[in-house]
Amino acid sequence: MKEIKIGLIGWGTVGAGVTRILQKNSALISRRLGARLRLVRVADLNLKRDRGMKLAPGILTRDAARIIEDPEIDIVVELIGGLDPAEGMVISSLRGGKRVVTANKALLAERGKTLFREAGQVRRRIFFEASVGGGIPIIKIIREGLSANRISSILGIINGTTNYILTRMSEEGITLAAAVRGAKKAGYAEKNPALDLEGIDSAHKLALLSSLAFGGWADFSRIYREGINEITDEDIAYTAGLGYTIKLLAVAKQSPSGADLRVHPTLVPRRHLLSAVNGIFNAVYLEGDFSKSQIFQGEGAGQGPTASAVVADLMEAGREILSGNDSTPPFIATDRDLKLAPIGEVVCRHYLRIPVIDRPGVLARIASILGAGGISIDSVIQRQRYKRGLVPVILMTNQAREKALQTALDKISHLEVVRGTPVRIRVED
Ligand code: NDP
Ligand code: HSE
Q1: Which of 140, 300, 373, 420 is the Cys-Cys partner for 355 at CB 3.0 to 4.6 Å?
Q2: Are residues 262 and 363 in the same domain?
Q3: Do residues 270 and 388 both lie within one domain?
Q4: Angle of CA points 348, 276, 232, to nearest 5°
Q5: Atom of ligand 2 nearest to the CA of 133
Q6: Model's pTM, two decimal places?
């Protein structure tokens, strides 16, 4: 049976999952592929750490160059994460005639324009199924299953760590810090968890999904983004009472002023399927002109699901090698930039929580600022007092344009009766 030789760089959480699948499901993979995926070398900086499994003698090395420069190796798997030295490793591997498989969404979203161009020039593909949605084959779904459609919108819970944190905060009442510790221990969080918490990881993934779905390069640095650091137990409780769940949502919508791309905490009505996507699960909701709406759900981070996507890519790259096809274009086109819509033009409903002094006339002053900005109020709730005579005014607005809402909020926050920063969460109906 023909052998396809693989070199893996980065034997951490995902890398160890890949070696485990290649050992455990080796016969099944060979049967389905018609060739053997043989792991010939694994590079990692730490040779001592216990990964709960053994590799054959001579496979493990500290030196990634022994993979990149080995002419016998057909496919390089990059699983070290980060931008450098990962970028140089990918470029050298492509120039050496190798296919590359990676789960590194940060690298592809931030440096992908160069990398995909390089791949096109040397006629070698970069496979990146594991970079979005963990075990959900969402890249293949967009690239193949829905390829006959114009996709008009994507709504995604595409960061497992923040979804796990928000779920534990709302179901168990634990603190954000305690939930972050749980996500790190389980191997879900990025090496720098700020990437998860600040919505950067979701924005990386959204850039890749929207580039694929909308057929142009999405500039990651221009995606509007807010993370979950400011979400409090109080807002989780109030919004639950109003029939909503708070999710860190990645949104991509085609609009007349361009592609509306954003990542922010969002109130999702409890009747919406995305509201029931909890814990480490991810889900992506897509609307195509002929496919109509579809939703895909699965575990979005962690060793097994992510490694499953990496090995599926190894098999796809293997099929390409077996067919002798070297002329396939890169999956993402980099010759056209997506025009992005300004965040100020986004129209949606908003939840506002404004801490005020409990005094007659306060609500009227807030309502008058909103009214002057053309923002109508859907409902007002005034709950129990805080300490020292403060009270939270909770408002749901009707549809309002972002820039009008922001102007009104700035004015409201300067009222002398307002104490502390007003909280605003967008609503996705
Ligand atoms: P880990 O930190 O667990 O693993 C990375 C490994 O690479 C570590 O063992 C690290 O060693 C090693 N390494 C770092 N630099 C080098 C180098 N120059 N040469 C050789 N080895 C090196 O990360 P994960 O496995 O969690 O993530 C890997 C990639 O997969 C990242 O891009 C991540 O974003 C992505 N990903 C992760 C998911 C997850 O659930 N964990 C899910 C989807 C994608 P050391 O520890 O000594 O630095
Ligand atoms: N840190 C990422 C997450 C890993 O939690 O979703 C999967 O991409």
Answers
A1: 420
A2: no
A3: no
A4: 65
A5: 8
A6: 0.97
